[in-house]
Amino acid sequence: MKNRGFTLLELITVIAVLSVIGGIVVSVIAITFRATRKADLLENARENGDTALSLMVKNIRYAKSLDAPTTAQCIATTTTASIKVTSFLDNKQTTYSCAGSTISSNSASLFDTNTLKVSLCSFTCTQVNTLTPPTVSIKYTLSPVNPGVFTETKFTVPYQSSVTLRNTITY
After folding, report:
1. For 59-97, b where at least 16 C-beta lie within 10 A, e where not — what string?
2. Within 10 A of 103 (CB to CB), how many other CB atoms are there?
3. pTM of the full predicted structure?
4. pLDDT category, 151, cuts 50, 70, 90?
5. Which of 25, 49, 71, 83 has the fewest other C-beta atoms within 10 Å?
């Protein structure tokens, strides 16, 4: 009579092969999840940064006047941490400021400060002469507040734009 079972060596070999295949599958899944996490974080940062930049550019472009720095200061190219404009539509002032680790509009942050922080933030005002409108350059970099230990969660997203005021009155 023949015994139809498996030997111990055959069972150990099958367990070893399945363990290797399982390890490879788990590694692939872990790498995929980490890559997806990085893509989600970058998408969130870009979305917040693009929205903030678009808002600032639009409001500065169609502003009635540049109040700080003054137009006279812009002729000598001025770089500051804040800029103040007066709206053409409602005549209200808006101050954009690089305050701490955020960019604020009249002290309200322009993006989610729980997940993102700003570094290297500045506004540069230039003007050729008093007959031309001022141009404001906006520069800042976004990065995660708590990047963690994995390289997938560490990133910086730089932003830069220049906008010329359209509605200013030149003398």
Report:
1. bbbebbbbeebebeebbeebeeebbbbbebeeeeebebb
2. 27
3. 0.77
4. confident
5. 25
